[in-house]
Every structure is written in C-alpha cells, then in structure tokens.
Specification:
Elements lengths: L1 H16 L7 H14 L10 H23 L17 H13 L6 H15 L2 H10 L4 H29 L4 H27 L8
C-alpha cells in the first residue's frame, strides 16, 4: 500500500498545489510504461475483483500524472524541464533486451512482465538526477520519493518472507530487480532521514 500512498501524495501535490515542481516527467513516463506492460494480463486472465481494481488504479493514476505534467495549462508551466534532462529512453531498450534474454517463460505476457520489473528497477534514475540538480526539495516531493522507495524495500522483504513460509524457491527476476531498485534509493534514504532527524529542509549533494 505504500506504493499507492506515494501516488496519492503526488496527486495531492499536483491537484491541490497545481504544481509538479521537482517531479521528473521522464520517471513518470517510465512508470506509465511499466504498468501498461505489466498489466496487459487484464485482458487475458481474471484473478480477483481487488486485483483488477488495483491494476486499473495504477494504470489510471500513472497516465493521469503524465497528462497533468504534459498538458494541464497550469501544472505544465511548473515542470522543471531544464533540470529533467536524463535520457530515459536509454533505459527502455536494454530493459526490453534483458527481458527477452531472461524471463520465466517465453511468451508475450511473461516477457513484458519481466520487462516491467527491469524497467521499474531503474525508472527512478531521472527523478534522482533531477533532485540532485534542484537540490532544494519540498516536503511532499520528498515524502513521495521516500514512500516509493519504501514500497520497493518492503516488497523485497515480502518476497524473502514468502521464500521461507510458502514457496521455498528463489525468484531471481523480482528479487534482483527489487534489490537494484532499493540500492538506488539508498543515498536518498540517508539524506531523507538525516533531514528528518535534524528537522532541516531536505537537500541532496551535487
């Protein structure tokens, strides 16, 4: 639920403050691609009502965020385009090639599922680069990034827990992808907790 909470925090910032300052559009576009490729099974398999609703929520919110940042007449003017310069398209092709090479089963749904995990692992990079360039980070943006990172760290712990209690099988793709993603957040976590402890404004070093 921390992932959903992070999205709620971001949408509150965008809708209520009419601002996306400090938010990377490129990271949001990558997340939209992640969810679109991961949840194609909506059209092929039914798991549960809850599962279907959550998938639709993640798809809808990720696309909505991209729309706000690109097309909303007020919000788009607050986008830090000059600082959001990471070439995010360089992350897409390697993730897709890796998914073709390393997957659970060679079919469209499974390859795209693997692709979504590989891409999600590195999707935060444009956002972290943007934060380093802007340095001064408002509270809602900091909380959003923290919750996003916490979600992945907790998700990784969940897989470890399930290994010992349920499946007793190493799931290399989600485990390694989750570990890579968590490591990318490590530096941000350090400065986030440091600012919280010292009651200072969150800043990242250049």
């Amino acid at each position: 639920m921390t992932h959903l909470l992070s999205i709620v925090v971001l949408l509150l910032k965008i809708r209520n403050m009419k601002s996306c300052a400090g938010i990377s559009l490129k990271t949001q576009e990558l997340y939209a691609i992640v969810f679109l490729s991961r949840y194609l099974d909506l059209f092929t398999k039914y798991y549960s009502f809850y599962n279907t609703v959550m998938k639709l929520v993640f798809l809808g919110t990720s696309i909505s965020i991209v729309w706000y940042m690109r097309y909303h007449k007020v919000v788009k003017q607050t986008y830090s385009k000059d600082e959001d310069t990471f070439r995010h398209y360089f992350l897409i092709l390697p993730s897709f090639v890796l998914a073709i090479l390393i997957h659970r089963d060679f079919n469209v749904i499974e390859v795209l599922w693997s692709f979504s995990l590989y891409l999600e692992a590195v999707a935060i990079l444009p956002q972290l680069v943007l934060l380093q360039r802007s340095r001064n980070i408002d509270t809602l943006t900091g909380d959003y990034i923290f919750l996003l990172g916490a979600y992945r760290a907790l998700y990784l712990l969940n897989w470890v827990y399930r290994f010992f209690t349920e499946i007793h099988k190493i799931l290399w793709i989600p485990w390694v992808s989750g570990l890579v993603q968590t490591v990318l957040y490590a530096d941000f976590f350090y400065y986030y907790f440091k600012s919280w402890k010292n009651r200072e404004k969150l800043k990242l070093p250049e």
